[in-house]
Automatic annotation (TrEMBL):
The lineage of its organism: Bacteria, Pseudomonadati, Pseudomonadota, Betaproteobacteria, Nitrosomonadales. InterPro entries: Beta-barrel_RND_2, BSH_CzcB-like, CzcB_C, MFP_Cation_Efflux, RND_pump_MFP. Pfam families: Beta-barrel_RND_2, BSH_CzcB, CzcB_C. One of its GO terms (molecular function) is transmembrane transporter activity. Residues 236-311 form the CusB-like beta-barrel domain. It comes from Nitrosomonas europaea (strain ATCC 19718 / CIP 103999 / KCTC 2705 / NBRC 14298). This is Putative cation efflux protein.
Amino acid sequence: MNLQIQIIAVFLAFVTLSVPGCKSGEEQEPPEKHVKAETDDANTIFLRPDLRERIKTGKPFYADIAEKLSVPGQIKVNELKLVQVGASFTGRIVEIYAHLGDSVSAGTKLARISSPELTQAQLAYLRANSLAVLAQRAAMRAQQLFEEDVISAAELQRRESELQVSNAELSAAKDHLRLLGMDNQAVQDLTKRGQILPSVVITAPRSGTVIARDVALGQVVQPSDQLFTLADLSVLWVVGDVPEHAAHFVELGQHVEVRVPALGDTSFDGTIIFVSDIVNPLTRTVTVRTEVDNPERRLRPDMLTTVNIDEHARERLVIPEGAVVRENNEDHVFIAREDGGFTLTPVKLDEMINQVRPVLEGLTPDQQIIVDGAFHLNNERKRKDLE
């Protein structure tokens, strides 16, 4: 029994001496190859000689930046060159000459209308013309008789007064015919021949394109009805809606670029000719309007557009696009330290304009930064962080 106890004791002593780290008075040290070099800031990196050749340093600088304000827009007819054509009296359309899409000139026949009112007006004119002729003869006869001392001065004055009234009635009857659509030539023909016209022609008051026709053959129309709409499509309006917070950037005369997605993003140049003085309470926008030439008729009313408004250039602190590192959905730059290192620092930047980024927050003009090659430097920083 004592022999077994001795054997077990010797075995335990052997095992104890064989296990590493169990020696008294000694401390276990990890292998040097497993020790990781740590820095006080994972966002800081020091440049190796080979990396210095791939980057450039510099400072933020000031530049005149003309930004673009992009707003949705729509092409509209130039209202200054828009004409609504209607009837001057109640009547029936007996002929239609112009149709949707037709190009017409001033004086072109659009439709023909007949009406009892037109007939009555012509009768009234013929009657007034006859009375005026009689009054003229009576006045001339009275003048001769007065000179021969046959009638008194009072009688002469009465005849002359009747002539003035007759002429006034004739002039009013002629004006009525013109209001009803009869031109001067038609009135002269009526005076000479005394033949009443059963209808008159509705003509185009100016050149343009028929963009709407709201009348049918045989339709009875009223003076308030709009029969044709004519528009000059060679010059159109582009109306944009500027958010109220950006309205102070917009003023008359500013250059705009109009892009039309329906035409393959084709652009047209123009200038702002109108800025509304009020805000739309529903959309919280301010209406602006520009005028664009349309000689080839590629633009059509109601097309959707994007209106890019050039703001006036102003001096802003900027950095090159190559200085920017995008991390965690934020913009960063490498800022130089006094010990020669560079620290990745978050900043707030505006959108890129002409290959530079305006600084909103986080940089000053006297700070030294990486202006080119920041992407390579950031990759090196990430690689070091993984080692």
